[in-house]
Amino acid sequence: NLPHAVVIDGRGRVIVADRQNNRIQVFDQDGKFLDMWGDCGKPYGLELSTDDKLYVADADTGNIAVLDAKSGKKVDTLLGIGEPHGIAIDRLGNLYAAMVDNQILLKLVPRK
Known about the structure:
Elements: E1 3-8, E2 14-18, E3 23-27, E4 33-37, E5 45-48, E6 53-58, E7 63-68, E8 74-78, E9 84-89, E10 95-99, E11 104-108
Antiparallel strand pairs: 1-2, 2-3, 3-4, 5-6, 6-7, 7-8, 9-10, 10-11
């Protein structure tokens, strides 16, 4: 209903944030529907990490859900981030979130 972000995983699947329907849809590159994942809030932004985690920004709840990119199962949630909209991960594993509430870029550094 409202595709808001798109990523392509290492297997070539097209992963689409369907924000208005509170889901993520997965397609092959020819547009064939493969799967649908819920339990991630309203997906505004998507980002894949090198360890096959899909980060899902939800500006409505203020959280970032972390899904296993192979199965779509939630493995973690980063709570109370603010209003994350767009997200990205750098080569060091730092997560960046563009915040719509206070118009800043937030950098989250993973624990070692």
